[in-house]
Amino acid sequence: MKTAGVALAAMALSLAAGEAIGAAGQQPPPAADHHLHIQGPEVTAELRKAAARSPERFERLDRQMLETRTLEDALRTLDQAHIRQGVLLSEAYMFASRFSTLPPAEATRLTRIENAATVAAARASGGRLLAFIGINPLSDFAMDELRHWACEPGVTGIKVQLGNSGFDPRSPDQVETLARVFAFARDNRLAIVAHVRSDADYPASDVDTFIEKILPFAGDSPVQIAHGGGSGRLDSAAVAAIARYTDAIRHRKPGTKNLVFDVALIVVDEEADPALISAYSAQMREIGIKRFVFGSDWPTLYTPARYDRLLQSRLQLTHREWMRLFNNRAPYFRRGARHRHAACANPA
Questions:
Q1: Residue 346 has pLDDT above 60, yes or no
Q2: Full strand arrangement of the beta sheet holding 155-161
Q3: I want to staple 141 with a disulfide (CB 3.0 to 4.6 A). Which of 108, 203, 257, 284 is the partner?
Q4: DSSP strand E in 77-167: where?
């Protein structure tokens, strides 16, 4: 594993390369990739079992999804894209997912191992990477896992993948359970990255449930909505969802003060309908480009460098808007460890 000194040297090279690109008159690289995944051998084994059971779910995905990835891999892929910083979203939620067949005790044990590996990688990155632990918020051990990590150095926030978790926004009990996780994040000054869309069927009422009954519990904690409010490709439901967020932000509803959206996989090759792209771009302007951040979801489909090129080729933004988007960093980058750990004397 790289030492902090080596990582900082690599960051300096990345910065120099980025400055050279900007000097050449090209679009400068994003300041940060807000949506990256490494994974330990335990997640790799779980994903390989899932791929054997349902190969059709993995047909289009990059083969790196089925390989163990480390800190060095993450830093290398950022360097190739000339990106300064990144956000590691732990895949520990996989062990208690609706697709997993692991017994609860084993899921609990492996969740801790995977979260520990992600946090350790961020700590060893020399400041280049931030870590979000991953949980299934509906699992019996979710709150114990949160309490374990609440005050640990190197933990920036919590990643929840509601589709993977089997979350049902029409279940009052599950809504209440998820709201408790958001309240815990608020009380412990943890940010949240949420893959909100839980199924292909995604009516506006499900979006409203999240906005009205869950998001307010985050208070002023930063919340990042993954995939721009969708689930990894742009369709009419994703455009309708971002419009609901637009309305919530316009009315300054609770939980929206530090709400941002990553643009990971909102464009997926030829599947991006120009009319939907135009509608989505209009909603981005309505919300304000300042609330959008770059993310690639590496390695699901693309490297950060390749997704940067694809996004610029399809998303309809002006040069000034691209400059703003690529310079944006989520509010949790500004908070810092000292601010967050001030709340950790007695975690809930």
A1: no
A2: 32-36, 85-89, 129-135, 155-161, 191-195, 223-225, 259-262, 292-293
A3: 108
A4: 85-89, 129-135, 155-161
| Site of tokens 């374990």 | 148
Cα(163)–Cα(176) distance, rounded to whole angstroms?
17
pLDDT above 90 covers what percent of the chain? Answer: 74
3-state secondary structure (DSSP) of residue 271:
helix
Q: Which residue has the tokens 């999804």?
A: 65
Tokens of 253: 């509803």
Residue 227 — left, alpha, or beta (φ > 0 → left; ψ -120 to 50 → alpha)? left
- Domain boundaries of the chain, sorted by first residue: 8-341
CA–CA distance, 9 with 6 (Å, rounded to integer): 5
Tokens of 94: 């996989």
The domain defined by 8-341 folds into: TIM Barrel (3.20.20)
Residue 259 to residue 267: CA distance in whole angstroms: 21
Asked whether the predicted pLDDT for residue 340 surpasses 70, the reply is: no
Q: Which token pair is 230?
A: 């969708």
Q: Name the nearest CA neighbour of 107 among 96, 118, 98.
A: 96
